[in-house]
Amino acid sequence: MNLKPYREALALPGLRSLLLVAVLARVPLTATGITLTFYVVQDLGRGYGAAGLVGAAITVGAAIGGPLLGRLVDRRGLRPVLVLTGVAEAVFWSTAPLLSYPLLLPAAFVAGALALPIFSVIRQSIAALVPAERRRPAYALDSMSVELSFMVGPALATAAVATISARTTLYLVGAGIVAAGIGLWLQNPPIRAASEATGPRVRVPRREWLTPRMLAVLAVSTAGTLVLGGTDVAVIAVLRESGEVGWTGAVLAMWAVASLVGGFAYGAASRSVSPLALMAALSLFTIPIGLGGAHWWLLGLALIPAGLLCAPTIAATSDAVSRLAPAAVRGEAMGLHGSAVTVGIAVGAPLAGAVIDAQAPWWGFAVTGAIGALVALVVLPIELRRRRAVALSVPDAPEAELAPATAG
Q: What CA–CA distance (Å, rounded) separates 120 from 330?
């Protein structure tokens, strides 16, 4: 496999340290959901539905706050936003263990709206540090780092709850998030390239960059993570029905390793692949997973083809947004991308759960995969129209992917 793209990307000043901070900073963020679930169920004595409402409050808040915080980063710079969100995180996580459930719900919504924007900021900084032609391996590395964080964070939170308590784990998670904000503030990665930072900052009207092509990328992002969220729930349901729920960790690990392998291969490839094509393939490979058999190892094997496409899909959409958005509004655009990803996961899990309750576990894979494929069909005319326009304007030039060849 050609490792040259990775060597060239990692040789760029600042990228290696940024990715290291990204892995460490995301670990506590990936532990928030499971920690709050344990706290609501064990310490507050509520059901899983009540715990789900707290998670939903954070998700809705994050979906609303992401673009607004990104816009603030564009206008005021990174450090003021890190101070604002860092203080908000400190207040929420230090008081959450003291709140009753009726107060925890609105507090969770506010905390979500003012959540530390690590995911979007890291992706915005990658666009600033890496030239457009080298972003594919950089975003592949970022996507793989997200996988690693999700493999470590929830496991550490579960171990902490079992060893100490859910209440104490809330304090630890909050401390980790605040520490991540401080680390990012100290590093202060650039949000614009040196060439982009020169001259006065001009406001770019949304109609100039929130085009049908950008909306298509955001739709692909949402559909992709909807499939992933639905798959997560369906795996648990299938194993529970077959009496092999104890193998859940092993099956999800197989899925995550496949995603890491796919992300690595995507970044090392010599040619780009359209995020639309990746998401469509991910959806189509997800539909038949539940038919692979009830045994845990058969389910793990059936997940591998779709798993190989998880990290590449997220990386490709991040790259596409970075190219479509002008530098002056890249923070807001990355915030929208983060919201699209968040909404997809938030919708996918309960949607699959409802389908599973009404039908059977394997329907969770089929329905979420079919929705992803349907979104791909809806978006396809936009891609075909763009390709025809490229062919007519530059007949001899190779066709670009869903994202254009030039950055804003």
A: 10
For the entire predicted model, the pTM comes to 0.84
Tokens standing for residue 321: 């947004």
Considering 165, 192, 219, which residue would you say is the last residue of a domain?
192
DSSP letter assigned to residue 43: I
Task: Look at residues 312, 324, 20, 3 and name the one whose alpha carbon lies nearest to residue 140.
Answer: 312
Rounded to whole angstroms, the Cα distance separating 210 from 196 reads: 20
Residue 116 contacts residue 181 (beta carbons within 8 Å): yes
CATH number for position 89 = 1.20.1250.20
**Count of beta carbons in the 10 Å neighbourhood of residue 203:** 9
Of 316, 329, 343, 408, the C-alpha closest to 70 is: 329
Angle at 384 between CA 382 and CA 386, to 5 degrees: 70
Q: What is the pLDDT of residues 21-71, one digit of tens each?
A: 888 899 999 888 888 888 998 889 887 778 878 888 898 899 899 999 999
